[in-house]
Write a structure and sequence with these properties.
With about 350 residues, the chain is an alpha+beta fold. The protein has two domains: about 5-25 and about 320-340, no CATH class; about 30-310, Neuraminidase, CATH 2.120.10. The protein has helices at about 5-30, 270-275, 320-340; strands at about 35-40, 50-55, 55-60, 70-75, 80-85, 95-100, 105-110, 120-125, 130, 135-140, 150-155, 160-165, 170-175, 185, 190-195, 200-205, 210-215, 215-220, 230-235, 240-245, 250-255, 260-265. It has a five-stranded mixed β-sheet, with no helix packed on it. A five-stranded mixed β-sheet has the order 6-7-8-10-14, with no helix packed on it.
């Protein structure tokens, strides 16, 4: 074999090996740098952990260590235009969720040591101008021991509260009673399992899909089945702990850090197609129970019986890598045979 022919075959085979893996990388990563919607201008917003947005306003709260306060931010400028003070000493605030016009739920749900007897959520009014309000707090209790959590979700139709735990290998979605009591602990019911290390989440306006984020990726699930429709990489952030779905269905993400940016990010087309093809789930009758003690042991998101073991299918994003690997091995075999002395 001449040197020229050897070099041509080497380059061709190398390209054949690299191409499938490049295809897998492109299909799996789907990089999106996002678009900067605004930057938190207030130096008091140092550990943004939780995000809600609607119209030209956004709301956030600091992580543990701060007093209980929620910042109202003009999303066109990033300036703080109002602060709601609601408590002097929350334990570990980690999340926000919509609570109707002019209100948000604040999730005091963090528990790194898994030592709390109960967690708390508080509904507070928000808007332009500063105010101090009385607490309207609900106590929530896990059915099988303490958990750490950083995501609080509210169903857009039923208003039902959900907490997503931050397990290392897998998280769990829990639902509060349909009509929680404000004078007694409310037992949470297990809905199912999701990805691990969830730092925030939100329902889409249709109530049939939910998005959960980790520090680096986002995953869309059907609801209440919690079937994964796919994951994708989020733009790099200092410590990504916030995600919001706007009333129009757009996605915003935020991060801890002083003067951090809030980014608008797109949903990959393959996941949008999967969401469009989701069949609406049947809705069970809603329970009229008003206390944790009279609620069934495992309340479902729609008031029926909860399946205690919901299988979450693995993400299907790995198929390009598998195909690329097989083709790459075959190409290496062709290269080896072509270079053997004849």
């Amino acid at each position: 074999m001449t040197d020229l022919r050897r070099r041509v075959l080497t380059v061709a085979a190398g390209a054949a090996v690299a191409a499938p893996f490049a295809m897998g990388l492109a299909a799996g990563a789907e990089p999106d740098d996002g678009r900067v919607l605004f930057t938190f201008a207030d130096p008091e917003v140092v550990e943004s952990s939780g995000l809600v947005a609607a119209g030209d306003r956004a709301w956030t709260t600091n992580d543990s260590g701060d007093t209980g306060r929620v910042f109202t931010v003009d999303s066109t400028t990033g300036e703080t235009v109002g602060v709601t003070y609601w408590a002097d000493g929350p334990v570990d605030v980690e999340a926000l969720a919509p609570a109707g016009p002019g209100r948000v739920w604040v999730g005091d749900i963090g528990d790194n040591a898994a030592a709390r007897d109960s967690i708390r959520v508080t509904r507070v009014p928000v808007g332009d101008g500063d105010r101090t309000v009385d607490e309207e707090t609900l106590d929530l209790v896990y059915p099988d021991g303490a958990r750490d959590a950083e995501a609080l979700l509210v169903h857009p139709t039923t208003g039902r509260l959900h907490v997503v735990t931050k397990g290392v290998f897998a998280g769990e979605v829990y639902a509060a009673p349909p009509e929680p009591a404000d004078d007694a602990p409310n037992q949470l019911g297990l809905v199912g399992q999701v990805v691990g290390l969830v730092t925030d989440g939100a329902f889409f306006p249709d109530g049939r899909h939910v998005v959960l984020r980790t520090y680096s990726r986002a995953t869309v699930y059907t609801f209440p089945d919690l079937e994964s429709l796919g994951s994708w990489d989020l733009p790099a952030q200092q410590q990504g702990e916030g995600i919001a779905v706007t009333p129009e269905g757009g996605l915003l993400i935020s991060s801890e850090g002083q003067r951090s940016e809030v980014l608008a990010v797109g949903i990959p087309p393959r996941i949008e197609r999967a969401m469009a093809g989701t069949t609406p789930a049947a809705t069970a009758p809603t329970s009229t129970s008003s206390s944790a003690s009279s609620s069934p042991p495992g309340p479902s998101p729609d008031g029926g019986t909860v399946a205690q073991d919901v299988f979450t299918p693995p993400d299907a994003d790995a198929w390009p890598w598998a195909v690329g690997g097989v083709v790459g091995v075959l190409a290496l075999g062709v290269l080896w045979r072509s270079l053997r002395p004849h």
